[in-house]
């Protein structure tokens, strides 16, 4: 069994075009990772992402993966684990949705929920089972501070992340002592292409900062990582704010 706190030599990114996922892969490559699998829907963007990691010296491969096709997850991820042991699985896929539109279009809201929660539950369980079968590894799950308490401006997205966050914590408890660990990462507002047209929120962060926090969390053996760290205190206060007050806050 490998040292649980050692940085990974191989990783699988579920959500192969995720800016946070790619930033994390780049950082881990500079720390010694040699094999990277990018799992996502076939696209030029996925191939470009893979090539951007190859030039850093990593053996980078792509695999077709669709979060909305849970029936395929066991087969798809099984092929990856059959090739080699995977030290780290990063669950980085997800969609923000558009709250204003999704409230009036239930099927769009369902798409957010199915991607961020249902697809993640399926992929997370399959990955955890494979990691457990090999006897070691880490599953890093990208949650969000929005999971802590539903906000008027993004309660559809927030509720899907709340479900994911709760699932990941429970899975971590279920895997305790098996040689496999789960780390939940809760970033605040992350400045990416997907959020470029949205108003910047307090304590905004970047994919590179999240990647740094993930590395430090892996080194510490952390179960939960907040990015930036001050959000642990901020969300603790907001979590207990009276509802009448909370709904008046300007966000």
Automatic annotation (TrEMBL):
Keywords: Oxidoreductase
Protein name: Decaprenylphospho-beta-D-erythro-pentofuranosid-2-ulose 2-reductase
An example Gene Ontology molecular-function term: oxidoreductase activity
Key word Oxidoreductase present: yes
CDD domains: SDR_c
SUPFAM superfamilies from the UniProt entry: NAD(P)-binding Rossmann-fold domains
Lineage: superkingdom: Bacteria
One Pfam assignment: adh_short
Family: Belongs to the short-chain dehydrogenases/reductases (SDR) family.
Keyword Acetylation among record annotations: no
């Amino acid at each position: 069994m490998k040292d649980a706190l050692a940085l990974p030599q191989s990783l699988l990114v579920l959500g192969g075009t995720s800016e946070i996922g790619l930033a994390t892969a780049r950082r881990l490559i500079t720390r010694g990772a040699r094999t990277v699998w990018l799992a996502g829907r076939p696209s030029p963007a996925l191939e470009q992402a893979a090539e951007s990691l190859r030039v850093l010296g990593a053996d980078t491969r792509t695999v077709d993966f669709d979060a909305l096709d849970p029936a395929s997850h066991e087969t798809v991820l099984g092929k990856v684990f059959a090739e080699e042991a995977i030290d780290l699985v990063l669950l980085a896929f997800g969609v923000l949705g558009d709250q204003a539109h999704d409230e009036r279009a239930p099927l769009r809201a369902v798409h957010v929920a199915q991607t961020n929660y249902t697809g993640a539950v399926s992929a997370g369980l399959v990955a955890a089972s494979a990691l457990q079968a090999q006897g070691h590894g880490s599953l890093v799950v990208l949650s969000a501070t929005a999971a802590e308490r539903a906000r008027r401006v993004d309660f559809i997205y927030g509720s899907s992340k709340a479900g994911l966050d709760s699932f990941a914590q429970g899975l971590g408890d279920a895997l305790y002592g098996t040689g496999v660990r789960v780390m939940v990462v809760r970033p605040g507002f992350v400045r990416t292409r997907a959020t470029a047209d949205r108003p910047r929120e307090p304590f905004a962060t970047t994919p590179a900062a999240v990647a740094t926090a993930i590395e430090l969390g892996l080194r510490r053996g952390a179960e939960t990582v907040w990015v930036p760290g001050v959000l642990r205190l901020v969300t603790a206060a907001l979590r207990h704010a009276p509802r009448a007050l909370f709904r008046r806050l300007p966000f």
